[in-house]
Amino acid sequence: MSNHPLRTMRPPSYGRSARLCRLAAALLAMAFYFVPRLAVAQTHEFQVEHQHTLRDCRGTLIITPDTIDYRTTHKKDSRSWPYVEIRQLKVESSTRLEIVTYEDQKRMLGRDKIFKFRLLQGQLRPDVVALLMAKSTHPPATSVMPVASGTPAFQIPVKHLHTLGGCEGLLSIYPDRVTYESKDKPTDSRYWRYADIHNFGHPTRYRFEITTFEDKYGGPTKVFNFQLKEDLPARAHDYVWVRVYPSEFYPNERPTSPTDFPPTDLPLVPR
Ligand SMILES: [Zn+2]
Ligand SMILES: [Zn+2]
Q1: What is the pLDDT of residues 114-136, one digit of tens each?
Q2: Residue 118 and residue 178: Cα distance in Å, rounded?
Q3: Which ligand is nearest to the CA of 189?
Q4: What is the layout of strands, in order, in the sheet containing 111-119?
Q5: pTM of the model
Q6: What pLDDT score was predicted for residue 191?
Q7: Rounded distance from Cα 265 to ligand 2 centre (Å)
Q8: Ligand 1: centre distance to CA 118 (Å)
Q9: Comparing C-alpha atoms, which of 260, 259, 258, 261 is closest to residue 133?
Q10: How far is the CA of 85 from the centre of ligand 1 (A)?
Q11: Burial track 105-126 (b if 16+ CB lie within 10 A, e otherwise)
């Protein structure tokens, strides 16, 4: 480092300022080189198949921080959705994405139109999922974990109960999220920020339920029932409670995005 030209102890000279100019020019050039590359890095393109009841169409799905576009020669299916026009995003798996729109489907008594895409190449990687989660205006549902950091405060092996049987995995409670990861049935894995949880319950010692905002056709939103294989520490319930139900009674607990409330100065009142 001591041999660096800018570190030498010579008095300022023309030569030094010329070097500084060259350095500044080089930095500027680097900035111009990297900024557009970062913008490009935020655009993800995939060759996809749009699933129809009869004949699927194919095209390109383009995910950017502003819109999700589907470009296809099957003109009537071409779309460009700003995130606010998407009622729900579902990352079914790393190769399947479902977009629930606000478009009425006349033949289906006005039921919202759902676009189901299957990637023909590539995968919905954790960074793409993180972008989708950050931009969704309605809680998304994802079985692919986005990029995230931190260590869980509580972790417990569970069985996710289905109508018949179930799948097994690990339930993890983090300061900003709850995840369920199943190797058994990866498409049942989920990642919920606290704002993505509608309701939760710990009705009996070995049960834990999470009511989501995830659509379930013909009924209320989807509930995940977990059978706990071990005791969940008693304070885990309160830990989740103050995060799912942010309130002025708990001024010190910060809820997570997207529904953020400013902390207040109200005193702590026992419930
Ligand atoms: Zn189509
Ligand atoms: Zn399951």
Answers
A1: 999 999 999 999 999 999 999 99
A2: 27
A3: 2
A4: 79-82, 67-72, 57-63, 44-50, 111-119, 96-105, 86-93, 141-142
A5: 0.76
A6: 98
A7: 42
A8: 11
A9: 258
A10: 18
A11: eeeeeeeebbbbbbbeeeebeb
- Closest ligand to residue 71's CA: 1
Question: Which residue type occupies 149?
Answer: S
CA distance linking residue 181 with residue 119, whole number of Å: 22
Distance of CA 50 from the midpoint of ligand 1 (Å): 5
3-class state of residue 185 by DSSP: coil
Tell me how far the alpha carbon of residue 68 lies from the centroid of ligand 1, in angstroms: 15
CA of 219 to the centre of ligand 2 (A): 18
The tokens describing 118, both together, are: 């299957």
Query: How far, in Å, is the centroid of ligand 1 from the Cα of 58?
Result: 7
Question: What digits encode the pLDDT tens for the residues 64-74?
Answer: 999 999 999 99
Q: What angle do CA 144, 147, 149 make, to 5 degrees?
A: 125
Q: Record the tokens describing residue 91, joined without a space.
A: 């990352």
Going from the N-terminus, what domains does the chain have, and what CATH number goes with each? 44-142 (2.30.29.30), 154-244 (2.30.29.30)
Nearest ligand atom owner, CA of 49: 1
Question: CA 207, CA 158: separation in Å to the nearest integer?
Answer: 9
